[in-house]
Amino acid sequence: MNEQNILEIKDLSVIYKTDLETVKAVNGINIAIKKKSTFGLVGETGAGKTTTARSIIRLLPKVGHVTGGSIEFEGQNLLDLPEDEMRTYRGNKIAMVFQDPMTSLNPVMSVGDQIAETIKIHNPHLSKEDVEKRVEDTLAMVGILPSRKIDYPHQFSGGMKQRVIIAIALACEPDLLIADEPTTALDVTIQAQVLMMIKDLRDRLGTSMLMITHDLGIVAKICDDVGVMYAGEIVESGTVQDIFEGKNHHPYTEGLFGSIPDLKATAKRPQAIPGLMPDPTNLPEGCVFVERCKYAMDICRKEHPQLSVSGTHKLCCHLFDENGNRKEANHG
Amino acid sequence: MDNNTPLIQLKDLRTHFRLNGGAKLHAVDGINLDIHEGETIGVVGESGCGKSTLGRTILRLIEPTSGQIIYKGEDVTKISQRKFRPLRQDLQIIFQDPYASIDPRKSVVEVIAEYMLIHKTYKHRADAYNRAAELMDMVGLARRYANMYPHELDGGRRQRIGIARALSLSPKFIVCDEPVSALDVSIQAQILNLLMDLGDELNLTYLFITHDLSVVKHISDRIMVMYLGQAVEIAPSQELFDNPLHPYTQALLAAIPEPDLSKRDIPFKTIKGEVSSPINVKPGCRFCKRCEHVMDCCQGVDQPLVEVSPGHFVACALHTK
């Protein structure tokens, strides 16, 4: 494992298996998150982003199975750990913020008690006063008056609840924070407040982050590295500069950028990507994006593309050779 | 009705909800708006600003507390629901949630044909089903889905069912209540383009409700920004983006994270606090508690909507004094 990385996912595959069908949710992905940096995982519903995140903290639903690969955190393969050792990682070293602030909190427990619960589990020797002190500090850190610790979740607005959830996740000062669409359920002005707070705390505490989002605007604001996920694969990855300013892109990435209504351009309409994501129970043999791709060639249907690498920028498309240069001859 | 009469006029429209204990929730609080035929009006605001209530009040799915709804020059605010029913053929709505707004026990073609059967558009059921199949072509749903049930389809296709259903009675005016906010961006663009094409083709008038300014920019001719039940700014779409005047509009625009690395290190200009309660509101600018330009004259009296340049209205003491 590379010393500079806090987390390395290698060749990870995850399936959901029921009596009726097998869903191939994640298919051989590679991700490396550098220490004190933020990796943005971008993609649409059903791309496998949340499955990837849940695999890291090993909270997949019962029907989910990791079928291959490794997830190394500070040199330890998390997939090999017995459950009781895994618990010492969860919360302490790796914490997760879930998407929906409305359902992630316990409605019959005061907010302060919920934060205290996390602190007590991970620091059993702290005295009662010390725990209370840390609850208050944690609330203050996310911009909520410490005196509100006695209030219950229904007394908070959506933005405040998400702050409380982030407070709980950060209460044990984890090394890695996984944030799964933390602001999707919030209004845009509240989203801006919460994003600025996350960015601020991350910089202050030196936390590494895996940021899952479908919003390229958030990626541009917060992330250092990006992986674009489609139908269980990372089709393109690189630094934010590679993705936002680079010349060569996977057609799906191109489509994602085209779909965003541009605030400045006078162009009247967004460029939609036609079609839908392939059925994960029946993925195509060749490239997973072939059915929606405007550059599709014969080879795309037959062969899965190889990875093209140029420096930090990687993409997986038949349009490019192994060094990331465009193969001009093959298409008009 | 001559050509200059707006299709729909709203005059001081108010919808208040009475709560337990006699408190009043001011969901829509004095909206004046003329909607002309063929025009698309975007209504933008955060959750709780009353934009959905406004859309539903115009269709009298929620009864207004006071004010007038004038359709083609005729006051329809007080006529009985029975008399209003035929008008519903002209006035339709597309709902936000394509999962909850469609009867799960009806097949696609039954869902689309339902309104035509209720309004007895055709004598024979088979004709309604044929028309439903035509509508499926129009909204880009393959006819092979006709006998499927909604749970077999994804969100984008379900939203197309909702659009086909709204079009089934050949309406003049459609309220689109956040029709794309439950969809992924690539699908969102498909549905937006479809709505724009249909609007041009059928000369539809839209009231397009959304919380997402970037969505509304492309589809709207004019945009109304709402805050706590009131319109704070109304302007032609491009003008609103080029020259936003109300501090709230400016804050909304500044809060959108843009996919542009050159803006990476500029922190968001965030506004402090959250939307205050719409219950028993006092007169005065509703935004003044969060506004950085707040002055003495902002409190106590409501700010009127004033035309500061042709077609650009704003309710803010900074620009109207």
Walkthrough of the structure:
The complex is a heterodimer of chains A (332) and B (321). Chain A has 332 residues and is an alpha/beta fold. Chain A has ten helices and twelve strands. Chain A has helices spanning 49-56, 83-89, 111-122, 128-141, 158-170, 188-205, 216-222, 240-245, 251-259, 298-302; strands at 5-17, 22-34, 38-42, 64-73, 76-77, 94-97, 176-180, 208-213, 225-230, 233-239, 307-310, 313-316. In chain A, the strands form two sheets. In chain A, strands 6-7-8-3-9-10-12-11 form an eight-stranded mixed sheet, with helices on both faces. In chain A, β1 and β2 (22-34) form a beta hairpin. The mean pLDDT of chain A is 90. Chain B has 321 residues and is of the alpha/beta class. Chain B has two domains: 8-90 and 171-320, P-loop containing nucleotide triphosphate hydrolases (Rossmann fold), CATH 3.40.50.300; 91-170, no CATH class. In chain B, 29% of the residues lie in helices and 22% in strands. Chain B has helices at residues 51-58, 81-84, 108-118, 125-138, 155-167, 185-202, 213-219, 237-242, 247-254, 317-320; strands at residues 8-18, 24-35, 40-44, 66-71, 74-75, 91-94, 173-177, 205-210, 222-227, 230-236, 306-309, 312-314. Chain B has an eight-stranded mixed sheet, sandwiched between helices. A four-stranded antiparallel sheet of chain B has the order 2-1-4-5. In chain B, β1 (8-18) and β2 form a beta hairpin. The radius of gyration of chain B is 21 Å and the shape is globular. Chain B starts with 7 loop residues before the first strand and ends with a helix. The model of chain B has no long low-confidence stretch (mean pLDDT 91). The A-B interface holds A 44-45, 157-160, 187-193, 195-196, 214-221, 240-241, 244-245, 255-263, 266, 268-274, 276 and B 46-47, 154-156, 184-190, 192-193, 196, 211-215, 217-218, 238, 241, 251-261, 263-264, 267-268, 270-271, 274-275.
